[in-house]
Specification:
By secondary structure, this protein is α+β, with helices and mostly antiparallel strands. The protein has one domain. Helices cover 32% and strands 10% of the residues. The chain has eleven helices and eleven strands. The strands form four sheets. A five-stranded mixed β-sheet has the order 7-4-5-10-11. Strands 1-6 form a two-stranded antiparallel sheet. A two-stranded antiparallel ribbon has the order 2-3. A hairpin with a 4-residue loop joins strand 10 and strand 11. The longest helix has 52 residues. The relative contact order is 0.15.
């Protein structure tokens, strides 16, 4: 009887062919996975868009950026846009827990010691952390991170717990800003009690109206504030967090480093530097990639990048009509006007498509290329 077997050459050829097939298949599998993650990211933004519209219908106004903040020291940050839309994202239980523990939002929600100021005991803290980590996973892009992560710590260890700035992280930011690049003003939400509706504010989302404490808040604007039309207005976008700063929120290293890392702090609180975690300026720029921004120092400045994603070549933005548009990282961005005088007189505008899409006051509707 003649026994048949593979020769060494034949075996090597088969192994080589299998290796080539695997090499061809892996990139395709990775591309398919990223396509699925990007689709999920888009769906998250659509859910946020539905929440904004449902909030508007129920409350007769847009969800505000924050429902309580004082510009003068000592600053008093409070519940952010992301807290206020929770009931409209099927997260009523999480919303009720936060509202109850803050006495209807009348207690300052200070990031620097979030859990202690919330007044939760150990069991309640564990429940809140679990609920927040799971319930707010829609605020994360799966291309950048998992869905249940949140910052936690004891509030004293800067090195390992990022200064105790606790809470769920997020990959999206609502659009806020002024007609001209003046970061200190948009960062501090300007004057919430101003009779001329927060002067200088030109972004989609502005502060609430309140008096006698944050618990008395009401929406400042309806969708009529978006004068350029809902389909021409960006409301929420993917925020840029440098890849080496994902998951960090350390206040050490001076203010400039603090501004960089505050981009990945808790999204529950808005006000002072905490605004960088929940909002971005409509007059800023788009990162060309996850590592964009290395070597720069002033993250709060609008000459730096605020928008970006973990996707290749595009950033997803939620439009006012509820649709989601993928905008190229090469689209012209930056302030609509180069100086305060031009901003006030509406003269000498720049070719900033992103700035125009985020500015509700410039009177120009632009299309995304």
């Amino acid at each position: 009887m003649i026994r048949r077997a593979f020769t060494l050459v034949e075996l090597l050829v088969v192994i080589a062919i299998i290796g080539v097939l695997i090499a061809l298949l892996l990139p395709a599998v990775q591309a398919a996975r990223e396509a699925a993650r990007r689709m999920q990211c888009t769906n998250h933004l659509k859910q946020i868009g539905l929440a904004v519209h449902n909030f508007h219908d129920s409350m007769n106004g847009l969800p505000p950026s924050t429902i309580g903040y004082t510009v003068t020291s000592p600053h008093s940050p409070n519940a952010s846009f992301w807290v206020l839309i929770l009931p409209y994202m099927e997260q009523q239980t999480v919303y009720d827990m936060i509202k109850t523990k803050t006495s209807n939002f009348s207690i300052v929600m200070n990031n620097t010691n979030f859990w202690n100021e919330l007044g939760a005991d150990a069991a309640e803290t564990t429940q809140l952390q679990s609920s927040l980590g799971t319930g707010l996973s829609t605020f994360k892009c799966p291309s950048r991170r998992g869905g249940k992560e949140y910052l936690s710590g004891n509030g004293t260890d800067n090195a390992t717990n990022q200064g105790g700035i606790y809470g769920p992280q997020g990959d999206y930011a609502f659009v806020q800003g002024r007609a001209f690049q003046h970061w200190s003003t948009w960062l501090n939400n300007y004057n919430p009690n101003a009779t001329d509706h927060a002067p200088g504010q030109s972004g989609a989302i502005r502060v609430a109206v309140w008096g006698g404490g944050a618990s008395s808040w009401s929406s400042r604007d309806s969708m009529s504030w978006w004068a350029d039309g809902t389909s021409n207005q960006i409301v929420v976008g993917e925020k840029h967090i440098r890849s080496d700063y994902v998951g960090q929120c350390a206040p050490d290293g001076g203010d400039n480093a603090k501004r960089w890392k505050l981009g990945d702090c808790s999204i529950l609180i808005s006000g002072d530097w905490n605004t960088l975690s929940v909002a971005r300026s409509c007059n800023s720029r788009i990162a060309r990639g996850p590592s964009d921004g290395s070597g720069t120092s002033n993250f709060g400045g609008e000459d730096q990048v605020h928008w970006g994603s973990a996707h290749t070549g595009t950033v997803n933005f939620l439009m006012g009509d509820g649709s989601v548009q993928a905008i190229s990282v090469t689209v012209p961005a930056g302030p609509v006007w180069n100086n305060e005088a031009d901003s006030n007189s509406r003269s000498n505008p720049t070719n900033s498509i992103l700035g125009r899409l985020g500015n509700v006051r410039d009177g120009n509707a632009v299309s995304i290329p």
